[in-house]
Amino acid sequence: MPTVAMTVNAKSVSGEVETRTLLVEFVRDQLRLTGTHVGCDTSQCGACVVHVDGRAVKSCTMLAVQCDGASVTTIEGLAANGELHPMQAAFREHHGLQCGFCTPGMIMSAVDIVNRLGVPSEETIREELEGNICRCTGYHNIVKAIGAGARVMNGGT
Amino acid sequence: MYAFDYHRPSSVRQAANMLKSNGEAKLLAGGQTLIPTLKQRLAAPEVLIDLNGVEGLDVIELKGRTLHVGAMARHADVANSEVVKEAIPALAALAEGIGDPHVRHCGTIGGSVANNDPAADYPAALLALGATIHTNERKIGADEFFTGMFETALEDGEIITKITFPVPRRAAYSKFPNPASRYALVGVFVSKRGSEIRVAVTGAGADGVFRLPGFEDALSKRFAAKSLDGLTVDADDLNGDIHASAEYRAHLIGVMAKRAVAAA
Ligand SMILES: Cc1cc2nc3c(=O)[nH]c(=O)nc-3n(C[C@H](O)[C@H](O)[C@H](O)COP(=O)(O)OP(=O)(O)OC[C@H]3O[C@@H](n4cnc5c(N)ncnc54)[C@H](O)[C@@H]3O)c2cc1C
Ligand code: FES
Ligand code: FES
């Protein structure tokens, strides 16, 4: 079995995987980072979104072996020094979740949106959420939370 | 997913040799079609050859009046490229409309073109812009390349290395996306370069992407949406499915074509 080595949430990790092991399986089953969820396993829902080398991707649609040498950030890697990341704080503040199943993927996507687009308009946020499905909230508070998180990430309050 | 061997070559030549020496081998590009297909066990290659380790396959550049896009250029790279936005803004806009941000971060133009999904966006652009598909072995014109649903002129062991597009004077793409998947229910790409007008339709054809000579003739008299008034498309050759009937798709082709011409 091939060995993969990568940086996950700023820590070097390695492990033996099958070539067909998905990145999300490696992260959840081997690294025990279970914040990343599997909603559909068919590349539709975005519950499994993580960042690979700085870009948001669906970890159910990437092989672990493809990430050998890569830098991966999961939802567990956002909070620093016991403080929630501003986007996590915004989701709590604006009630951007109900059951919370979609939330890790939503937040990883949200951070990616802000990294790329700064403080996007409400319309842009809605377009950018094309690949993230939420079955509870009706999206409204998620959109509000992302707008608020974006302002804080860009130095506002 | 069935088990397979995995290789990550660092050059096109190496990848080509691996393809030739392994019977049931498949190339892996962005994985956004191939990995779901493997999961569903619709494909079971013995070997996957990952193109992500090959350097220089994602270059985007303008040489004279020709835009070169490397096979491994991601949809997001094409969408955000200043070179593409300047040369063929319609192509950048098309890439921006594929799937969702996560798919655009991974999916590549080479993978999309090789796959030739009947509802994919890029095939319409290649056909309407008169693009050329470059492989490790030869060059293939778009008119010869797309040979049917999920079928192309690629031979076993052939690797797409880049796509070249002559820069048009006017071009636009108009798509009616499937509201769930964002694939084209119907997409129409129009272009005008000198006196040559090309109109290509994706999402609707029973054999995949196709041109509309009747629309092209009408537009060569005058390149205006009004020139398409009264023209219809025969529903007999079109796809009908749970998403839309063939008749509805035929109607949408007219609407999307007019919108594209108006936007070009
Ligand atoms: C949720 C979702 C939504 C999507 N929405 C859209 C959409 O709206 N419009 C659209 O057009 N597409 C859409 N797609 C498909 C997406 O664009 C894929 O990225 C694309 O079809 C395949 O590109 P890839 O790089 O991911 O290729 P892969 O999946 O890696 O490969 C696809 C096929 O091409 C072959 N291949 C790859 N590269 C080469 C090469 N250089 N030479 C020869 N053969 C090669 C592979 O062997 C494989 O058979 C969507 C996909 C998903 C998951
Ligand atoms: S689990 Fe990956 S997209 Fe749904
Ligand atoms: S909060 Fe339940 S799925 Fe989004």
3D structure, described in words:
The complex is a heterodimer of chains A (157) and B (264). Chain A is an alpha+beta fold. Chain A has two domains: 3-76, Beta-grasp domain (Ubiquitin-like (UB roll)), CATH 3.10.20.30; 86-153, DNA polymerase, domain 1. Chain A has five helices and five strands; from the N terminus they run E-E-H-E-E-E-H-H-H-H. Chain A has helices at residues 23-30, 86-93, 103-117, 122-128, 140-153; strands at residues 3-8, 11-16, 49-52, 55-58, 71-73. Chain A has a five-stranded mixed β-sheet with strand order 2-1-5-3-4, sandwiched between helices. In chain A, helix 2 (86-93) packs antiparallel against helix 5 (140-153) and helix 3 (103-117) packs across helix 5. The termini of chain A are far apart. The model of chain A has no long low-confidence stretch (mean pLDDT 97). Chain B folds into two domains: 5-50, Uridine Diphospho-n-acetylenolpyruvylglucosamine Reductase, domain 2 (2-Layer Sandwich); 60-263, 2-Layer Sandwich (Uridine Diphospho-n-acetylenolpyruvylglucosamine Reductase, domain 3). Chain B has eleven helices and 14 strands. In chain B, the strands form four sheets. Chain B has a five-stranded antiparallel β-sheet. In chain B, strand 12 and strand 13 (196-202) form a beta hairpin. The chains are: A alpha+beta (157), B alpha+beta (264). The structure holds flavin-adenine dinucleotide (FAD) and FE2/S2 (inorganic) cluster (2 copies). The site of one FE2/S2 (inorganic) cluster has 12 residues of chain A, from loops.
Q: Which keywords apply here?
A:
heterodimer; A: about 160 residues; alpha+beta; Ubiquitin-like (UB roll); DNA polymerase, domain 1; 5-stranded mixed beta sheet; 5 helices; 5 strands; B: about 260 residues; Uridine Diphospho-n-acetylenolpyruvylglucosamine Reductase, domain 2; Uridine Diphospho-n-acetylenolpyruvylglucosamine Reductase, domain 3; 2 domains; 5-stranded antiparallel beta sheet; about 25% strand; globular; binds flavin-adenine dinucleotide; binds FE2/S2 (inorganic) cluster
